[in-house]
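TEACHING EXERCISE
Course module: macromolecular assemblies
Task: Read the component lines below, then compare them to the predicted structure of the full complex.
Student: A.B.
Group: 4
Components provided:
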Amino acid sequence: DQQVKQNSPSLSVQEGRISILNCDYTNSMFDYFLWYKKYPAEGPTFLISISSIKDKNEDGRFTVFLNKSAKHLSLHIVPSQPGDSAVYFCAASLTGNQFYFGTGTSLTVIP
Amino acid sequence: DAGVTQSPTHLIKTRGQQVTLRCSPKSGHDTVSWYQQALGQGPQFIFQYYEEEERQRGNFPDRFSGHQFPNYSSELNVNALLLGDSALYLCASSPWRGHYEQYFGPGTRLTVT
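Instructor-supplied answer key:
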């Protein structure tokens, strides 16, 4: 049973525009959410996170929004840059001891 | 400061064989988690080790076992390999159990023929 879902396998965005990556989850007990970025032949790299008690967290060009009532989170990247092209995974955690990952969204930023 | 390292990088095994994968956590980290990432899928949690004990386990059969050593490094063992075990195996470490941000290694690509 997939508890974290990323329904868009791929996304293409023009350089300078906003990229919005979406993620849905089913377990209301998740208390922390994270976004990871993965380049080919590398492990996932932590990007940004949000606690379930917040609805927004910003870090430079990256902002994560959490809508608990809809069990939905999104990652906004603005402005998008070609170096942002990668696979993005959202993940959800139960007390930090077990993590559930989505299937990933491949982002392509077109120069 | 070395990050999470894994060995070997690639491995080819035959169905029914056994395999051992190794992981050294980031300096200062004492908790290690293992994940299996099949092609086109996200990482699936296998188990987590802390203080040399398995603390959490995902939905994986007993053929998957592990070990953590006093220096916090870890091994993942898979017995009686199946074709479906072919995947990228990722190790992640964190500074303490319950810490949310995990640091991943580059993974070991296992191919079972």
